[in-house]
Amino acid sequence: MENIYKQLKTFGHVRLNEPMAKHTTFKIGGSVDFFVVVEDVDKLAELLTFVNENGLNYFMLGGGSNILWQDDRYEGVVIRLKTEDLRLKTENLIEVDAGVPLSRVVSLAAQNNLTGFEWAIGIPGTIGGAVRGNAGAMGFDISADRCLSKVHVWQNGEVVEYDKKDCNFVYRGSMFKDNPSIVVLRAYFKLETGDKVQIMKAMQGYLAQRTGRYPNFPSAGSFFQNVPLSQWKKDLKDLPELFIERKKIPVGWLVEQLGLKGLTVGGAKVSDEHGNFIINFDNALQSDVLTLVELVKEKVYNKFGIELESEVEIIH
Predict the structure, then answer these.
(1) Catalytic residue among 172, 174, 219, 271
(2) Does 132 qualify as catalytic in the annotation?
């Protein structure tokens, strides 16, 4: 272990026996053998080659906002890319490293009168995680028109470029989520010039929709994927018109129809503010959250015939 530690230090800052609860927004997680913070994309590529050649277990961590970590010790390396590198390449093309917070791209776009990223205001996490999980809100996502153009990834020891059309984006997923061995290094966003007043108005509107609905306790964000309209087995007249327009049924609405807000298991609880948020209100364990998740899934299925799917990545 001492030899591995010395070698890992050549790529970034290394911490031993680091509690993952410190690095996830859920504030849940046991310790990890090696936690490496890398501040350069080229170093990240070298580190990925090193851990693969040496057969080490590893996990790429973004902002820690869409993940539920295991309670037990993780035997391996957790890697976090923490960079500040983003720039306007042309008048409407933004180049950004995977470790940059999503919020910084939203700000840069608005400052330069670029439209297409307003929906992301207030969403935590990093660009790499957002691309990997095709993050979205308000009916938009990373793979929408006027957003992502291409990505650079680490794959089998090489840096490879993928156009958006080749990334196999689906709702809250992509080829990178299906293949953890392919790691996003950098992304390019091609936006359109817009009216600054309208851009700011849209951002304020989206932010207002979030204000007061999101809990103050630790969570991983929306826990379940919203449901395609095609899965609704009852009368469409029972649904608000906005759901039909967006062709998605918010899980928070389903949970609220069943009166499940406030449902508690151990230190985990369905938020009182938002039905699709599970919060850590009292030193919850992963096992508490998973038991609560199964209860919610069972009740939603028994009432609506809908099988909920997790949006949060669960690490066992």
Answers:
(1) 172
(2) no
pLDDT classification of 57: cutoffs 50, 70, 90 = very high
Q: What is the CATH code of the structural domain delimited by 2-81?
A: 3.30.43.10
Q: Please write the tens of the pLDDT for every residue from 61-80.
A: 998 989 999 999 999 999 99
pTM: 0.90
Q: What's the CATH fold of domain 215-314?
A: 3.90.78
Q: Is 222 a catalytic residue?
A: yes
* pLDDT of res. 183: 97
Mean pLDDT of 193-219: 88
CATH 3.30.465.10 domain span(s) along the chain? 86-197
Known catalytic membership, residue 213: no
pLDDT for the residue 212: 62
Q: Which of 18, 132, 219, 311 is catalytic?
A: 311
| Cα torsion 63, 214, 241, 294: sign | positive
Looking at the chain, the whole-number percentage of residues with pLDDT higher than 70 is: 99
CATH code 3.90.78.10 region(s) in the chain: 215-314
Classified by CATH at the fold level, domain 86-197 comes out as 3.30.465
- Span(s) in the chain for CATH 3.30.43.10: 2-81
Amino acid 213: pLDDT: 67
Q: 180 or 270: whose pLDDT is higher?
A: 270
